[in-house]
Specification:
Blueprint (H helix, E strand, L loop, with lengths): L1 H14 L33 E7 L2 E7 L4 E10 L2 E9 L2 E9 L5 E8 L2 E2 L3 E4 L5 E5 L5
Antiparallel strand pairs: 1-2, 2-3, 3-4, 4-5, 5-6, 6-7, 6-8, 8-9
Length: about 140
């Protein structure tokens, strides 16, 4: 429940971020995780991108012909333990990114727009207790 509450907080923070007149504030609900098992969808990647896989470390991502990450990205510690999950937009992190500890508990949660951190980074220790929250990078 704490994890879901922090997700809602991050989305609200992102929605109220109006630091730059050139950047439009995010709307609630715009920062979302890729769906679980996204690579099993009939069309897992955006147009112009293809599904890629590596085994060391185990990762799945979408990539354009020129090697630019574009679409969902997931990395695992082991077959059953996720390490990181998020979305790329033409090589830049975008949306909600989450990392996990090796024990499966969340490690961090942060929102990006156009490759820049736009929400507080919330971190948890390995026991799942809130560790700290740090502000977004300066524009």
């Amino acid at each position: 429940m704490l994890f879901a509450g922090v997700t809602a907080l991050i989305i609200r923070l992102a929605a109220s971020d109006t630091r730059s007149s050139k950047q439009k504030p995010l709307r609630p609900g715009t920062l979302k995780h890729p769906p679980d098992f996204w690579w099993q969808q009939q069309v897992p990647c955006p147009p112009g991108a293809a599904l890629k896989t590596s085994t060391a470390p185990t990762r799945r991502w979408c990539e354009t012909n020129d090697g630019t990450k574009h679409g969902f990205y997931t990395r695992w510690y082991t077959r059953d333990v996720r390490a990181e999950r998020g979305t790329y937009d033409m090589g830049k992190r975008t949306g909600l990114w989450t990392t996990w500890h090796r024990n499966g508990k969340p490690a961090s949660h942060v929102g990006y727009v156009d490759g820049k951190q736009r929400t507080d980074k919330v971190e948890w220790n390995q026991a799942g207790e809130l560790k700290k929250a740090s502000g977004p990078e300066a524009p």
